[in-house]
Amino acid sequence: MSISGGRVQTSGNQAIQEENEAGLKLVLLLSGQLDYSMHRNRHIAVTGPAIHLSVSNRPFSVTHRYSTATPLQYVAIRLPVETLNQGLHIDFPELPATPHTTSDVPFFQDRQANKTMQGLARQVLLCPLKGGLRQLYLTGKALELTTMALASVQSRQPGVDDKGICKLTSRQLEALHHARHLLLATPSQTPSLAALAREVGLNVTTLTRGFRQLFGDSVYGFVREQRLDLAYRMLATGECTVAQAACASGYSDSHFSKIFQKRFGLAPHKLQP
């Protein structure tokens, strides 16, 4: 198994061809946008938060095109066939497939990443441990994330996810990304929904519905996640006390500890050096 991730900002529009070995590849894109093509298929655009899953019993190539508009934040997990068969005792036919999948054409699917998947990806990126414990932690989180992604693909029914989804214009999409950028820039000073809507040129209804549809969470839910991530980083580096982290996140001490442990799986005081 290989686990990678981080933040990528390109200096210019780039096209990169990636060679993948047979097996399973999962990419969770927390933010940013790219497009890719596989096995002579058309280019497919993916905007975070989203997951990309590909499964193939033969090596395959993917061409990625990166935009300079927004940096990419991602986690990538690769499980070769040998690891699936011998290490995890998973037979290849048990993995997702479609009626059109052949021995030469990999199965691939993209879909929105839910809050739990996003949380697991952030835990991978923000892991405070070192050495063997770090590898053990990352392996556990990667397997949990992969399991959730496979389960979501297998349980998906055609058309279900499309109900109730409104089509957004290019201008609305640009405005929603701008709103997200503003929230990321000032997580501790969140504007009201009305003020944010005015700033990006949308009405409140389009902002709230479009934001949830595009980014998988409400505006305030997104801000809450960013504040908790900030608190995690500050505690892990010793920049603040638990009380200060709670205040920065907008919680009382006791409530903060409960929310933090539920979100990251450990009490906040255990992160302090």
UniProtKB/TrEMBL annotation:
Keywords: Transcription, Transcription regulation. The keyword Transcription applies. It comes from the Bacteria. Pfam families: HTH_18. InterPro entries: Homeodomain-like_sf, HTH_AraC, PchR_regulatory_protein. Residues 177-273 form the HTH araC/xylS-type domain. GO terms for molecular function: DNA-binding transcription factor activity; sequence-specific DNA binding. This is AraC family transcriptional regulator. It comes from Advenella kashmirensis W13003. The lineage of its organism: Bacteria, Pseudomonadati, Pseudomonadota, Betaproteobacteria, Burkholderiales.
